[in-house]
Design a protein that fits this description.
The complex is a heterodimer. Chain A is mainly alpha-helical. Chain A has 12 helices and no strands. In chain A, helix 8 (172-189) packs antiparallel against helix 12. Chain A is globular and about 55 Å long. Chain B is mainly α. In chain B, 75% of the residues lie in helices and 0% in strands. The chains are: A mainly alpha, B mainly alpha. The interface between A and B is medium-sized, with 17 and 19 residues.
Chain lengths: 303, 214
């Protein structure tokens, strides 16, 4: 294990709440507002960490374990991802499947934590979350399978370093399909606008927000921090697969990748400002569409 | 050149997906028009560098017919019938997309096994052609409005056209023009049929034809 591999997890730990700040700032600029400070998510986390937690009598250890397990799983996920030329902390053949399952574990604990409160409202959110992720996961796995086949490797680090910067001109069609599909999965998994509205507290629009209603204090801070790390993981994955920049200088590549990650956050903000949330009925269509794009990317990589 | 060919074929694929998942008739007509234009470009791209007058002429006629004339005819029918949406199809839109996934799988499987007389320009040509034919067929059987069924017929024909572009590069001019004329007459006749269905039932729903008894 190289010490340099610790750079990406460290960057993720430090910078991920800033992604949420960037998204909020983009939306504020689009709406003509000044917006909250970029560092607001950090302040929120600090405020929540100093508070005490309140637990309902109907909840059990599951409810208390959920935020911790969720955060731990997503932390592990950051160690699996390489960033540009920085190798991942853990890399072995098949680690992209572990990544998908770690994301599944995060979701599973969020869902049983929500169900443990016994609130029907939270159960509704949990059921929606599971329904949509069940459709988003094949899109993610098939997309990764396409890259794995294309680069003839089964480890995320080799997959990402196996893509060269001339990749767009060689297999541009496959690459564009993959990027579109992964971006849709990113929006779904991070509860962003065409799928879920992170701002509202309305029953009609809530998926992710509704599941975390009963968490407070440090538990909620863990959930918020976990959510921002999850956004970082998806942005880093999308950057690695869609924007292979090869300059030969490690630090320039890392800087480009970090800028690209924040670029994706801006893009998410733009999408949120320009689009309304889809009706719940239409969301499965979007996700099945994303899955089909991944299938086609896989087909194009099979040649 | 393969890159362009792939991109165009993927555009055809995406237009098919849009048709399978869309309930708005106006948008569907526009998507089919776009597909027609993409097919014209596809015919040009599949020829690589050597563009003869024959190829250019056919592509231009096909693009004009599928991209301009058909949409006009269909929009006119739409205006007269005052329908906007396909309300209750036999198969819902999300299920249609899932069926689309199954059809894509089937076309890929058949596409790899089909013995072809000549080498094709891109490995996705045959699967996309089959997928287009199947989606056209599926649109015809799963939707109720006469207009969507006409669109399904057009998509079906487009699929066959892709096959032709991929395989029979040297089809005589007269054959291709004959095919285009056939399609034109078919859409024309279907337009008249739609007009009569609409006058009889005040709707484009073909289900109601079942109530006709002698």
């Amino acid at each position: 294990m190289q010490t340099i591999a610790l750079v990406h997890p460290a960057l993720a730990l430090v910078l991920s709440p800033l992604l949420l700040g960037v998204i909020n700032r983009t939306k504020a600029i689009f709406a003509g507002r000044v917006g909250q400070p970029l560092a607001q998510p950090y302040r929120d986390l600090w405020k929540l960490l100093r508070k005490g937690a309140v637990y309902s009598r109907t909840t059990t250890w599951v409810f208390r374990a959920a935020p911790v397990v969720g955060l731990a799983a997503i932390l592990l996920a950051t160690t699996l991802l390489p960033l540009a030329a920085l190798p991942a902390l853990l890399a072995f053949p098949g680690d992209f499947i572990l990544l998908a399952y770690l994301l599944g574990l995060v979701r599973f604990f969020a869902v049983i934590g929500a169900l443990d409160t016994g609130s029907s409202f939270e159960g509704m959110g949990a059921s929606r979350e599971v329904q949509f992720s069940a459709l988003a996961e094949p899109a993610l796995l098939l997309g990764l399978a396409a890259v794995a086949y294309h680069t003839h490797s089964l480890s995320l680090s080799e997959m990402i370093s196996g893509l060269s910067s001339t990749h767009w001109s060689q297999a541009g069609a496959m690459q564009a399909l993959l990027a579109a599909s992964l971006f849709m999965v990113l929006l779904t998994e991070n509860a962003r606008i065409p799928v879920d509205d992170p701002n509202t507290h309305l029953e009609l629009t809530m998926i992710h927000e509704v599941m975390v209603l009963d968490f407070g204090g440090p538990d909620f801070a863990f959930i918020l921090y976990g959510a921002s790390l999850k956004l970082w993981v998806f942005c880093a994955l999308l950057t690695g697969l869609a924007l292979p920049v090869r300059t030969g200088n490690l630090w320039i590549e890392v800087a480009v990748a970090v800028i690209a990650i924040f670029g994706i956050a801006v893009l998410v903000g733009v999408v949120e400002s320009c689009m309304a949330r889809l009706r719940l009925i239409r969301i499965p269509q979007l996700l099945v569409g994303a899955g089909l794009l991944s299938v086609l990317a896989l087909v194009l990589s099979l040649r | 050149m393969t890159l362009w060919l792939d991109t165009l074929l993927i555009l055809v694929f995406l237009t098919n997906l849009r048709l399978l998942g869309s309930s708005r008739l106006g948008a569907s007509v526009r998507v089919v028009a776009l597909q027609g234009v993409v097919l014209g470009l596809l015919a040009l791209a599949s020829r690589g560098g050597d563009l003869t007058g024959h190829v250019l002429f056919l592509a231009a006629v096909s693009m004009a017919l599928k991209g301009v004339v058909f949409p006009r005819l269909l929009f006119r029918a739409l205006r007269e019938a005052r329908v906007r949406r396909e309300v209750e199809p036999f198969v819902g839109y999300t299920s249609s997309l899932l069926v689309g996934a199954a059809m894509l799988g089937l076309s890929l499987w058949v596409g790899t096994r089909l013995p072809l007389p000549t080498a094709v320009a891109s490995p996705v040509v045959v699967p996309v052609a089959l997928f287009t034919i199947l989606s056209g067929l599926f649109l015809i059987v799963s939707r109720k409005k006469a207009l969507t069924q006409v669109l399904g017929y057009l998509v079906l024909e487009n699929g066959i056209y892709i096959f032709g572009v991929a395989l029979a590069q040297e089809a005589p001019l007269i054959v291709e023009l004959g095919v285009l004329l056939d399609v034109f007459v078919a859409v024309f006749v279907m337009g008249i049929t739609m007009f009569h269905i609409n006058r009889e039932f005040d709707d484009l729903d073909t289900e109601q034809m079942a109530s006709l008894k002698d």
